Amino acid sequence: MGWVESLQRAIDYMEEHMEDPVTIDQIAKQANSSVFHFQRTFSILTDCSVAEYLRRRRLTLAAQELSATDRKIIDIAYKYGYDTPEAFAKAFRRQHGVTPSEARKNLGKLQAFNRLVIQVNLKGVDPMKYRIVEKESFQAVGMKREFSLSNGENMAGIPQMWQELNQAGTSSTIAQLNDGDIKGLLGICADYQDGGTMDYWIAAESTASVPEGFSRLEVPASKWGVFEVHGAMPDAMPKVWKQIFSEWFPSNQYENAGTAELEVYPEGDPYSEDYVSEIWIPLKSKR
Asked: In what residue span(s) does the HTH araC/xylS-type domain sit (predicted)?
């Protein structure tokens, strides 16, 4: 099964189980993917977490039932996974801007989130600058935190971690440890578990002894796809991630090897339009 077909199969599975308490593990299995990589790919391509997609779609279907049937509001709430009418009403109003009772009376406008269909852009209109690098294993030294993959907690927690370490001057201390081939601070996603967690590191390639309070990560030898990112943070990085998954992977002989992924932030002003950073993705040949 191809990459696009696998992702669409997972989306179809979600749509078929909108009334069931499905887990991210069950969904990821439909795409033959780990939980982490499925969530990451899904969020990159859709700008929406898996949990948010399920919530939006269920509330869209609930609104349709309120408008088209006489079914009790409490029954619709239970059908789409809400334990109490109050929780349902709060979520419904946050999405639609009206209460379930108002929706039943056709008061106000409803906000529909339609079923996803994955379409991959293979035109390659915007050129991508990349290189393939073979690199032996190396060590990274820095700070590590564990994040839950549930409800997009990792997506909210990682930017907060950067903010905290930047404000405390810790990121500058880490940068001073850099004595390896990869120049700059590293944002590393590693040790993702199907149990629902991942480790995120702010680190630097370094052979130095580990200072007190810091940790060491051994990054395995790999063939890497190294992609240039041009432009100011935070917008430039997500744009290239999306281009990699929607254009580069489907039209190349490689797939993600599933080990640590790196974002490389060299010295300079990351908010400048002239800033150049990198994304390093471990590669393996497609089966």
From this structure: 8-106
Give the three-class secondary structure for 50.
helix
How far apart, in Å, are the Cα atoms of 254 and each of 8, 192, 249, 284? 20, 21, 7, 5
Please give the share of the chain, as a percent, with pLDDT higher than 90.
62
Six token digits for residue 254: 């490689």
Q: Is 197 exposed, middle or buried (0-12, 13-18, 19+ CB in 10 A)?
A: middle
Domain extent listing, the chain: 3-104, 130-285
pTM score, two decimals?
A: 0.79
Query: Above 60 in pLDDT, residue 124?
Result: no
Tell me whether strands 276-285 and 254-256 are parallel, antiparallel or unpaired. antiparallel
Domain 130-285 fold is Multidrug-efflux Transporter 1 Regulator Bmrr; Chain A (3.20.80)
Q: Which residues pair with 216 in a beta bridge?
A: 141
Q: Find out whether 197 and 146 touch, Cβ atoms under 8 Å.
A: yes
State yes or no: cis peptide before 234, omega within 30 of 0.
yes
Kindly report the CATH class assigned to 3-104.
mainly alpha
pLDDT digits (tens, 9 = 90+) for 221-258: 999 999 999 999 988 998 898 888 888 888 788 888 88
Q: Identify whether the C-beta of residue 89 lies closer than 8 Å to the C-beta of residue 104.
A: no
